[in-house]
Amino acid sequence: NAGVTQTPKFQVLKTGQSMTLQCAQDMNHNSMYWYRQDPGMGLRLIYYSASEGTTDKGEVPNGYNVSRLNKREFSLRLESAAPSQTSVYFCASSAWGGEKLFFGSGTQLSVL
Amino acid sequence: GENVGLHLPTLSVQEGDNSIINCAYSNSASDYFIWYKQESGKGPQFIIDIRSNMDKRQGQRVTVLLNKTVKHLSLQIAATQPGDSAVYFCAENISTGGGADGLTFGKGTHLIIQP
Questions:
Q1: Cβ separation B102–A103 shorter than 8 A
Q2: Phi/psi at A91 (nearest 5 deg)?
Q3: What is the pLDDT of residues B79-98, one digit of tens each?
Q4: Does A102 sit within 8 Å of B46, measured CB to CB?
Q5: Does B25 touch chain A if contact means CB atoms closer than 8 Å?
Q6: Which residue of A28, A57, A108, B84 has the lowest C-beta tally within 10 Å?
């Protein structure tokens, strides 16, 4: 089983550039999430999608947008990247909200 | 808001000894707790979970203890091995009412295994 697949694994952007992080899960999960992980800050929720067709803001949504393309896919878009968005990004899914999360392997993003 | 936190950022243990990683939570409405293991360069991996109607749950070489009175969670790893070296996160969720916004994570404890 692939589980949760994220692409790309690494990305370097210049300030102001845009990009989309892709995420797909093959576990037929209803809920999907985007977290960012910074040193000493733990994992912080950016956006989540409780079910197909819905998206909601998490703790740190500013500067990001998301799209729940279908039940399998949940993308994260940075419209105008800033150095403060340098981080490791993790996509996760769960059968339902409130259940244990399964994580992808992460995307390491650097904004110069 | 209320967050899950950890007592120690780094824990060093001898190979073969038992490890105990602690976690304090402050949200009394939390009723579901999870421990994750994160190895360098990888995503967090589920270890074990426990609901608030239990005070102990055992897995393979791991035990989670929940003390709701003092809002404390611990992860015990028996006979620690080199492969146990990782950062360990506790996380909480309020499952009643949906809890759709996922888990709230602590900052993590780095477990170092001494040969």
A1: no
A2: -100, 145
A3: 999 999 999 999 998 765 55
A4: yes
A5: no
A6: A28
